[in-house]
Amino acid sequence: MNLTTLAESSMFSMEIKKSKFIGRAIPLLREKDSDLWLEKIRTEERGAAHHCFAWRFGLDRVQERYSDDGEPSGTAGRPILDVIRRQQLNCLLVVVTRYFGGTLLGANGLVRAYTEAAAGALQAAVKMALFQATVLEVTLPYSDYGRLEYALHNEGVHILESDFTDNVRLRLLLSLQDSSQWQAAIQEWTAGRATIHLSPPVWAGRVDHGELRLENLPQGL
Question: Residues 37-57: pLDDT tens digits?
Fold first, then answer.
């Protein structure tokens, strides 16, 4: 499964001919959360003329929805959705709020404005690729720790937790496809002295700057 979404919400604002456009990009854990976010934004920005949006959710059966919210048909919601599609993002909502400045922008001007505001919000967002992973819990003697630490550092393996008591205990976050290889390597390096416990599959996210984290998978995919 490959799914790229947002690690956190982001915002972008701009002004064109005295109309203010505020773009928000929001990750969704549930499809129905889009309605809650829209209600919240409409309440916070109640003086705005339009709250145009698009959301995309799902994997095998991708659901999409968009709205021009009173702007001329095809000038707002669909351009926002097109930006999301081009970036191949999923499980997110993008809302562009407009405060009307008194000057009509025309259909082409509106398409450009809503496209730019949506793209700006997504450019400001931290992206996250979700993948199946496992947590490898390794207990080993101190005498074997140095070699393993060196290998983990060189390979960029994410250590969730380290505990140094009578032995060394490490909790490693690994992609599911790499877990068997690492189990075999650790047993070889420690001559079988390491004890290894493997968790059931979990979901992890790799964010833009390389950080790994355990994640809740969006519901209903």
Answer: 999 999 999 999 999 999 999
